[in-house]
Amino acid sequence: MTAQVPHILVVGGGYVGMYTAYGLRKAARRGRIRVTVVDPRSVMTYQPFLPEAAAGSVEPRHVVVPLRKTLKGCRVVTGRVTSIDHAHKVAKVMPEEGPDYELAYDQIVVALGSIARTLPIPGLAEEAIGFKNVEEAIALRNKVLDRLDVASSQPDPALRKAALTFVFIGGGYAGVEAFAELEDMARYATRYYDNIKPEDMRWVLVEATGRILPEVGEELGKYTVEELRKRNMDIKLDTRLESCEKGHVILSDGEEFDADTIVWTAGVKANPALANTDFPRDEKGRIKCLANLRIEGLEDAWSAGDNAAVPDLTSDTGAYCAPNAQHAVRQAHRLAANILRVVDGQEPQDYKHKYVGSVASLGLHKGVAQLYGVKVKGFPAWFLHRTYHVSRVPTLNRKARVILDWTLALFFRREVTSLGSLQTPNEEFRRAAGSK
User: Fold this and answer.
1) Where, by residue number, does the polypeptide cross the bilayer (predicted)?
2) What is the CATH number of domain 7-116+269-344?
3) pTM score
4) In whole angstroms, what is the distance from residue 77 CA to residue 12 CA?
């Protein structure tokens, strides 16, 4: 560690980690600081575009941002930080291959984010799929299209019905957008099957509370339920998943049925790896932060995003900033600026941002939005959704590629080809090797 050149360790390459390092990269290139980013993945995923990637509206490669290409001047380590000893300013790194090693730092940014919040439901781990990364989005797309192929070729009514039943657990952003976008894609795809009609499919959304999309307000939440039900989609409010062993779904309202596709999007929780640190945490496992994004009680440690409890200075009730992309990106910009201020001997500034509102896509040309208190529905909301998120996706390169995807879609029909076999590329070879 060089005393004259502070070493900034960024733990995590998601919204907060990537954008913080992006804000520090110029200073790193000039030799003012050294920046190291550690993440198990070599890309940052722009999660709001996952539903569109799953539906085929956006090329999967265009919703991920390569860290090494974007963070020129920073060192990127593909590995997992397994523990942090801030008292000695050392983090233990488990690389993709090889033995663990220790990495010393002068200042640290903890941006481990969140993981799916699951429950001990029988069959959930074995039968369900999440929706937090691009691999899951593409696997789900392939699964839906593959089930249409299976149903079209299956004479058994029970097996056919299970293949055409799709269950989503969780009525937040991720669940509703994925639910609506994939149904929209599958509905379009049925035109290529002579024995499957849209009404043959059953799409079920299970939400434990009495409303969906709480971020857009109660009125737009009710509107969304009504619109989805008009598409013959089954919205079950105040209902919980009790079991899904071997694809047999049992709900708390007493209904039972078989489903080949079960998707879990029922919330997130702070990364449990934070337990292996000496940072102060709250009852939800989040790191306690000050409004200037410093970790409470520490000088050389920072945090933001889903894994941090950051006071919301715009709230009169002592609330914390919501765990969403809007706050995470803005917090990262403030965090990078604060680190540079501290390096220059200045005091860090507080993070303060009044929530702008929310936008959600409900399929092609359909959406809901609430911006600055104004409620928008239908095509205008869908257009706002796309406009907002393309403005937020990092780098001009990715913005241009996403816009090009959308532009090409105006002139060509939607692509509904399944590439599920890519997930088992050696299956044909195994069959050939096992034949006589």
Assistant:
1) 6-24
2) 3.50.50.60
3) 0.87
4) 10
